[in-house]
Specification:
Domain Enoyl reductase (ER): 12-328
Order of helices and strands: EEEHEEEEHEHEHEHEHEHEHEHE
Protein name: NADP-dependent oxidoreductase
Number of helices: 9
GO molecular function: oxidoreductase activity, acting on the CH-CH group of donors, NAD or NADP as acceptor
Oligomer: single chain
Keywords: Oxidoreductase
CATH architecture of the largest domain: Alpha-Beta Complex
Structural class: alpha/beta
Shape: globular
Bound molecules: NADPH dihydro-nicotinamide-adenine-dinucleotide phosphate
């Protein structure tokens, strides 16, 4: 079983010394367990957080353990009445070819609609659900309000913006290339876009794109963009803190300087993790599927082939070269 494991905690951008490969036997399934052959391994910015040892919503990855990830796989061996060989499941697995785990923690996927299984990691999976609950429950957008989204062309951000459009908001997206900005505006119907790599002063660019100010800032990046957005908020604005990707590889990144704006404008700021909403996943998946089928939500998946490409693929999240939900595919034999 080829695995990529955490040999040491990365000091900055993870390297092949931090995350080397090894081959180990596939663990046999004890009673109640099953073995899946992984087909898709989800690559999420959160994994970078689990490689460190700061307090988090889930335990850090232990040194010498395979790097934890959501996976989609097919059951190849089962020691549980819950799962049969051939079932497709989603589970918390690892950067490895085969995952052995408890059957109760493997969610059987419904293949009857003929959807590509990768969709269960993207728009109908954790990133789509993050967008759904983050914008609706935390951002609480009202028709006519202005919603600003950072990392707007990413897996979470692109869905956030489209949901805000469905709710009648004016939506402004920030992304790191002209191609990404063009996709947001021309295909997804964002009202305005900012290429934050070429726009100059972030505050000026946000004020120009949001002449009526910002009512909801959906924060995927933290750092200087958050600081600039804080200065553009309207009275009673909401800041939904989803992630701070600009800081994940930089332990010395300074914290936000403009938090006083929370007082000045009576702002609500709230962080959240998608697993807070687990009870409501079925409802949200139903709604997301409806929007996808009606064409109101479009999405991109960036699928990199081959387990041995997993570390360079993961780093695409941090240089912005991923186009949509990033994952690695291991071909079925
Ligand atoms: P994306 O598909 O958005 O990929 C990451 C993108 O972040 C890159 O493509 C890049 O886009 C942008 N980015 C990278 N570095 C920087 C930087 N220094 N400054 C600004 N932008 C940067 O990933 P996801 O949609 O999976 O995740 C987006 C955010 O959501 C992350 O912060 C993640 O941690 C968070 N998240 C939170 C969850 C929760 O439950 N709270 C669950 C899932 C994700 P560009 O080209 O535009 O720079």
């Amino acid at each position: 079983n080829r695995q990529y494991y955490l040999a040491q905690r990365p000091a900055s951008v993870p390297t092949s010394e931090d995350v080397p490969a090894r081959d180990v036997p596939v663990a046999e399934p004890a009673e109640g367990m099953a073995v899946i052959k992984n087909m898709f391994i989800s690559l999420d910015p959160a994994i970078r957080g689990w490689m460190g040892d700061d307090p988090n919503y889930i335990e850090p990855i232990a040194i010498n353990d395979a790097v934890r990830s959501s996976v989609i796989g097919r059951v190849v061996k089962s020691n549980s009445p819950e799962l049969a060989v051939g079932d497709a499941v989603m589970s918390l697995g690892a950067w490895e070819a085969y995952t052995t785990g408890p059957a109760v923690a493997m969610n059987k996927l419904d293949e009857s609609a003929g959807l590509p299984l990768s969709n269960f990691l993207s728009v109908l999976g954790p990133t789509g659900l993050t967008a759904f609950f983050g914008i609706l429950d935390v951002g609480k957008p009202k028709a006519g309000e202005t919603v600003l989204v950072s990392a707007a062309a990413g897996a979470v951000g692109s869905v956030v913006g489209q949901i805000a459009k469905i709710k009648g908001c004016r939506v402004v997206g920030m992304a790191g290339s002209d191609d990404k900005c063009a996709w947001l505006k021309d295909d997804l119907g964002f009202d305005e876009v900012i290429n934050y790599k070429t726009c100059g002063d972030y505050g000026d660019a946000i004020r120009k794109a949001c002449p009526d100010g910002v009512d909801v800032y959906f924060d995927n990046v933290g750092g200087e963009i958050l600081d600039a957005a804080l200065l553009c908020l309207n009275k009673f604005a909401r800041v939904a803190v989803c992630g701070w990707i600009s800081t994940y590889n930089d332990a010395d990144a300074p914290g936000p300087k403009n938090l006083w704006q929370l007082v000045a404008e009576s702002v609500t700021i709230q962080g959240f993790v998608v697993i807070d909403y687990m009870d409501r996943f079925p409802e949200a998946i139903g709604q997301l599927a409806e929007w996808v089928m009606s064409g109101q939500i479009q999405f991109k998946e960036d699928i990199v082939d081959g387990l041995d490409n997993i570390l360079p693929a993961f780093l695409k999240l941090f240089d912005g070269s991923n186009q949509g939900k990033l994952m690695v595919r291991i071909p079925e034999e």
